[in-house]
Amino acid sequence: MGRSRDNRRRAAAEAVVEAVEGGLAELIPDPDRARAWSLLIDGAPQSHVDLDDPAHLAFEYQRRIGHVIDLAAPPGKPVQAVHLGGGALTLARYTAATRPRSTQQVVERDAALVQLVRRELPLDPGARIRVRSADAREGLAKVPDGWAGLIVADVFSGARTPAHLTSTEFLDEVRRALCPGGVYTANLADGPPLAHLRAQIATAAARFADVALIADPAVLRGKRFGNAILVASDSLLPLAELTRRAASDPHPARLEHGARLLDFTGGATPVTDTSAVASPAPPPSVFR
Questions:
Q1: Residue 88 to residue 269: CA distance in whole angstroms
Q2: pLDDT, tens digit, for every residue of 94-134?
Q3: Which of 201, 113, 160, 155 is nearest to 286 (CA)?
Q4: Using an 8 Å Cβ cutoff, are 61 and 69 in contact?
Q5: Is pLDDT at 13 greater than 70 in this prediction?
Q6: What mean pLDDT do residues 215-219 have?
Q7: Cβ-count burial of 283 within 10 angstroms (0-12 exposed, 13-18 middle, 19+ buried)?
Q8: SS3 annotation, the chain
Q9: Phi and psi dihedrals of 74, rounded to 5?
Q10: What are the backbone angles phi and psi of residue 269, rounded to the nearest 5°?
């Protein structure tokens, strides 16, 4: 009990709190890891980074995206990746650590957040990561045709995905920037009745040949609000290995694909720019 109290005191003393464009950013030291930090924006957990071990992914949704990154190309092979949404640059750091010599572009709208992260959680000088402060869709439009083997979307504003990143027109830009066989993965968040999630699956299925979804079974059953990881490609996805990794995670998840995934949409129609709305706000209890 005494050690736990000391850890809390240490975290309070060393926390970095700073206003950024998206709200109040807090960098909270991890009491169990010497150089690890959690990033919160207005109290909502956004990222966790271990500077000594960038391959460590503490958040379950980031581990699931990590599985996608691991299987996007042969083990250790460099990739050209675009990250829409930066946070603490956790997934870009992970890609650099697990796929050395990868070339990566990060698009993060919040320039003040980028400055805070660069100052307090500096990138490895050898990592080939370029960070651009821009709107995610505008930044994606500047990526050359067919440049990316991997595109990761993890964009939230006020804990909601902006509407203009949920449409078929947005996915047309994703497909334009992907090389043949490239993989797109996105962090989606929804709760009952899962209308947003169902519509996002229908939207992805309208633009990609192969689509899968990885999520906690309770989220898929509409029992609670949570994250779901969309995976899409114009080539066949590595479903067997993705399924195995999702199921063996410390927080096991289920992979849905094919007819079952299309049935899950419940007849939802693809989202367009004219019909798009932001993802639902999480209930206050999620972050308690």
A1: 34
A2: 999 999 999 999 999 999 999 999 999 999 989 999 999 99
A3: 160
A4: no
A5: no
A6: 97
A7: exposed
A8: CHHHHHHHHHHHHHCEEEEECCEEEEEEECCCCCCEEEEEECCEEEEEEECCCCCCCCCHHHHHHHHHHHHCCCCCCCCEEEEECCCCCHHHHHHHHHCCCCEEEEECCCHHHHHHHHHHCCCCCCCEEEEECCCHHHHHHCCCCCCEEEEEECCCECCECCHHHCCHHHHHHHHHHEEEEEEEEEEEEECCCCHHHHHHHHHHHCCCCEEEEEECHHHHCCCCCEEEEEEEECCCCCHHHHHHHHHHCCCCCEEEEHHHHHHHCCCCCCCCCCCCCCCCCCCHHHHC
A9: -55, 150
A10: -105, 155
Amino acid at 275: S
With CA atoms as reference, report the closest residue to 208 among 170, 241, 240. 170
Residue 274, CA distances (Å) to 53, 60, 163, 164, 170 in order:
43, 33, 10, 9, 12
pLDDT, mean of residues 177-187? 98
Closest CA to 155 of 251, 13, 22, 19: 22
Percent of the chain with pLDDT over 90: 91
Q: How many residues does the chain have?
A: 288
Adjacent-strand bridge partners of 48: 38
Q: Is the entire prediction scored with pTM above 0.85? A: yes
- CA dist., res. 10 & res. 124, Å (int): 26
Phi first, then psi, for residue 109 (nearest 5°) are -65, -35
